[in-house]
Amino acid sequence: MAVSPDQSGLAEVSAAEAPRNLEGALWMTASGLVFTVFLTLSKVQSAEYDPGFLAFFRSFIALILTLPVIIQQGWGIMRIHQPGMVLLRSLFGTMGFIFGFYAVSAQFGLPLSEFNAISFSRAMFITVLAAGLLKETVGWHRWGATLAGFIGVLIMTQPQAGVSLGTLLALAAAFCMAGAITLVKLLSRNHRPVTLLIWANLLSSAMLLPLALWKMPEVMPSWQDWAMITLMGGCGVAGQYFYIRGMAIGDASFLSPIDYLRLPMAATVDWLLFKALPGPWTWVGTFIIIGATAYITLRERQVRRGARGA
Tens of pLDDT along 161-181? Predict the structure, then answer.
């Protein structure tokens, strides 16, 4: 549910870039805070309303907020060249939304901190999908880090003790978001990012509408609940914008680790509001996943830097 670290365009950090990196870090930190509020609101609201109903309004509110862009730039911004791939990308993203909403919902009860920790595994899924779909050359360093990351997932989830459905949904969400990110890499060669964003929200709203109608509550939300649902959707959009803004300003290799701040933020919410804290094996697995993700990011930077110097 949360937006993934950019896996491309990694550049070396220089002293001249430091002020921009500091500004980017502030945007990234704000993104983590807003996304934590988004997840918290979705978890609280899921006690009264089905996650499918809530997921629709997340996408629909995002679509409404993109309408001024369409009005300003005209219908030409909607032009796409690979409609099948755009549809598939939106399907991956929509399924990631659905799985994420249900994973942290009151029904399945996955702690926010554990969901965030599992979401970091998307970097490993991206490595596998990039090799298969984008035909990227993946060296043994990245394959080794990917394997280590999946071992971290196994340690965290402890399948021998029985895996909860919430954990499986979180893993499915991570895989689907990795698929969406991989396809964005492919589509961004011929499409503007804002075009992909508009189509993602439009198609996601259309896909989720039948589920929202099916899961429509018998008693319609009160004005207070509508305000909370609207705030939840607004936080989702704002968090995404803050993330993109931060990455556009600063160096991706410097800023990507700041995304890990979402974990202590979520753990604090789990402790204060839901009286839940991750167990020791969750922390062990999390640190392995974070280490593997950081290594993959640094290794990709080295490869790209070597390619530029060749």
Answer: 667 899 999 999 999 998 988
